[in-house]
Amino acid sequence: RELLDAGVMVHCGEMGVFNTTSKAATIRWFTDVLAILQQLGIGWSLWNLQGAFGVIDNNRPGGKGEQLADGRWLDIELLKLLQTYA
C-alpha cells in the first residue's frame, strides 16, 4: 500500500496455488487475494496457464471441468473465478 501511495506501479506476477492444495482452499485463496488486488488496483498474472498452477491440465482433485477439443482439461470453476476479477 505504501508503494502505491508513493506512486509506484505494482503488479502481482507469477501467483497461484499448487495443485496439491484442496479445491476449496484454492478457491478461497484466489477469492481473497484477487479481491484485495482489485481493491488496491493492482494487476496480476498466474504462474502459468497450463500445468500445476494453471487452469488447463492442473490435475487438481475435485475440480469441475471439461475436456477441450485437443484433449486437455479445463478447470471451469477456477477459470470463472479468475474471469470475475479480470
Tell me about this structure.
The two termini are 21 Å apart. The strands form 2 sheets. A two-stranded parallel ribbon has the order 1-2. Helices cover 36% and strands 17% of the residues. The model has no long low-confidence stretch (mean pLDDT 94). It has 3 helices and 4 strands; from the N terminus they run H-E-H-E-E-E-H. The chain is α+β, with helices and mostly antiparallel strands. The protein has helices spanning 2-5, 23-40, 76-84; strands spanning 11-15, 43-46, 65-67, 73-75. Helix 2 packs parallel to helix 3 (76-84). The longest helix is centred in the middle third of the chain and has 18 residues, at 23-40.
The largest sheet is: 2 strands, parallel
- Total helices: the number is 3
Can you count the beta strands? 4
Strand arrangement across the biggest beta sheet: 1-2
Tell me the series of helices and strands, N- to C-terminal.
HEHEEEH
General shape: elongated
State the secondary-structure class. Answer: alpha+beta
- Look at the structure and give the mean pLDDT: 94
CA-to-CA gap between the ends? Answer: 21 Å
Poorly predicted regions:
none
Gyration radius, in Å: 14 Å
- Strand % is 15-25%
